[in-house]
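Supplementary Note 2. Why include the ligand at all?

Several targets in our set were suspected to adopt different conformations when bound, so apo predictions alone were not considered sufficient. For every target with a known small-molecule partner we therefore ran a joint prediction. The input for S-adenosylmethionine is given below.
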Amino acid sequence: MENQWQTYFEQNRKIWNDRVETHLKSDFYDHTSFMAGKSSLTEIEANALGDVNGKTLLHLQCHFGQDSLSWARQGALVTGIDFSENAIETAKQINDELGLNARFLNSDVYQLPEVLSGKFDIVFSTFGAIPWLPDLEKWADVVSHFLKPGGIFYLAEFHPTFYLFNFENHKVEYGYFTEGKPYSEEISGTYADRYAGVQGLEHFWNHSLSEVMSPLLKNGLQVLDFQEFDFSPYNCFPNMVEREPGRFCWGNFGVRIPHIFSLKMQKRT
Ligand SMILES: C[S@@+](CC[C@H](N)C(=O)[O-])C[C@H]1O[C@@H](n2cnc3c(N)ncnc32)[C@H](O)[C@@H]1O
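The joint prediction is reproduced in token form.
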């Protein structure tokens, strides 16, 4: 791992470790309904992958595993990875409680090829994952490394244009082209509970769409589908309004702005 990233990652890992307990108890993650059988997947990714039964699926940055285990409930053979020890421990416990057979591994995305072997039918990553990664060239190498020829990579993420805004004061505060420079902010609370006692310095990177797509294309992945949406399936930013059930919009600009995008790609055979 690049030396200059170590401090960023250590501080980010601490915050993600601290978030797990709060998230587990939050209305946002609604863990009681999840345990009772409700899928945590949103309509976007749930409809995108089709029948996953019997397919091997690698979930990058799986947090405490709700989405990974939602795929496992549909018969996918899931491996979830995350660099937060607390998230992975919790995911393992939930997997055992539910009697599922997902595998969870504590690893940084960039170091994964050193600790995990095998190739997968699907590599999957969604919502709030890539902003924690400084270098998408290396990330795309990892994605490609773990895909079987003909395998599918699926990404759904917040749109880099959406991330330009300060969600509290509605001003454009962040760059679209950031040349790998992080934004470092002292945070308090978390998107699932703004008043939670989670505090510390976190570091994140906004990535332009070309920064996301170019290294994947260079790795021999072909675009099957690319979409942009004018809503978020999550109410996880300040000042959002539920336009329709499960579709949240931010701001009141009188024009439609991109909130999220999805990308489905296939590795050449
Ligand atoms: C917003 S959460 C992803 C949520 C995800 N959509 C889900 O399934 O719940 C971001 C996750 O990325 C993880 N993460 C951040 N940086 C990472 C890194 N360098 N390597 C691996 N995991 C990382 C965090 O620990 C956190 O669990």
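The domain at 3-267 is CATH 3.40.50.150 (Rossmann fold). The chain has one domain: 3-267. Comparable summaries for the other entries are listed in the accompanying table.
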